[in-house]
Specification:
The complex is a heterodimer of chains A (115) and B (111). In chain A, a hairpin with a 5-residue loop joins strand 5 and strand 6. Helix content of chain A is 0%, strand content 57%. With 115 residues, chain A is mostly beta strands. Chain A has strands spanning 3-5, 10-14, 19-21, 24-26, 32-38, 44-50, 56-58, 64-68, 73-78, 87-97, 100-105, 109-114. Chain A has a single domain, classed as Immunoglobulins (Immunoglobulin-like, Sandwich), CATH 2.60.40.10. Chain B contains no helices and 11 strands. Chain B has strands at 4-7, 10-13, 19-25, 31-37, 43-50, 53-57, 64-67, 75-78, 87-94, 101-102, 106-110. In chain B, a hairpin with a 5-residue loop joins strand 4 (31-37) and strand 5. The chains are: A mainly beta (115), B mainly beta (111). Chain A binds chain B through residues 32, 34, 36, 38, 41-46, 49, 51, 88, 90, 94, 96, 98-105, 107-108, and chain B through 4, 31, 33, 40-45, 48, 50, 55-56, 90, 92, 94, 96-105.
């Protein structure tokens, strides 16, 4: 079955420290990969995506992610965390099927940045 | 202007009632979705429409019926509401294969 795994329910990091939120996927073919962020009582907001090309992609708010095909991973990173980065983060893959693309989301990782 | 808007934002209703949630996108996207987010924050796709045509219909009870009058709208009608239907429902749109844009969500509470 095609799936996306986010192995950590919660990640705690001190403000100013680097952060990593992990994501691995198990899909057939070449997926498109995404990261989204959800703040309390809000919808999901797009952060960044990997379609093709450079394995390191940069996105909004200073976030970046590295696509690793051999490890089937797409970890989200930021060099210096801010308290305002505290939110729920979702990794997703987009797969072509039945003539359109279907997004499969991971279970989400809650990021808590401590002041 | 809000790219993907859904109404209402909150919906509290009794078991057995029928209710609808409306969604509109002004991005010109061809594909629209409904997702359900449960109390554990898991996001699960329910339906996907492409140019008004149903493409994806996950294992969702028949009580849930999506309707797309045009490609800018995808409404969700729910019959005979049950306690387990309580969740946050998100509408989204995309122009494949790019990122999806999400609405603010509708928090449905069935009492």
């Amino acid at each position: 079955a095609q799936s996306v795994a986010q192995p950590e329910d919660q990640v705690n990091v001190a403000e100013g420290n680097p952060l990593t939120v992990k994501c691995t996927y198990s899909v057939s073919g070449n997926p498109y990969l995404f990261w989204y962020v959800q703040y309390p009582n809000r919808g999901l907001q797009f952060l960044l995506k990997y379609i093709t090309g450079d394995n390191l992609v940069k996105g909004s708010y200073g976030f970046e992610a590295e696509f690793n095909k051999s490890q089937t991973s797409f970890h989200l990173k930021k060099p210096s965390a801010l308290v305002s980065d505290s939110a729920l983060y979702f990794c997703a893959v987009s797969l072509l099927g039945s003539g359109t693309y279907k997004y499969i989301f991971g279970t989400g990782t809650r990021l808590k940045v401590l002041a | 202007d809000t790219a993907v808007s859904q109404t209402p934002k909150y919906l509290v209703t009794q078991m057995g009632n029928d209710k609808s949630i409306k969604c509109e996108q002004n991005l010109g996207h061809d594909t629209m979705y409904w997702y359900k987010q449960d109390s554990k924050k898991f996001l699960k796709i329910m339906f996907s429409y492409n140019n008004k045509e149903l493409i994806i219909n996950e294992t969702v009870p028949n009580r849930f019926s999506p309707k797309s009058p045009d490609k800018a709208h995808l409404n969700l009608h729910i019959n005979s509401l049950e306690l387990g239907d309580s969740a946050v429902y998100f509408c989204a749109s995309s122009q494949d294969p790019s990122e999806a844009f999400f609405g603010q969500g509708t928090r449905l509470t069935v009492v």
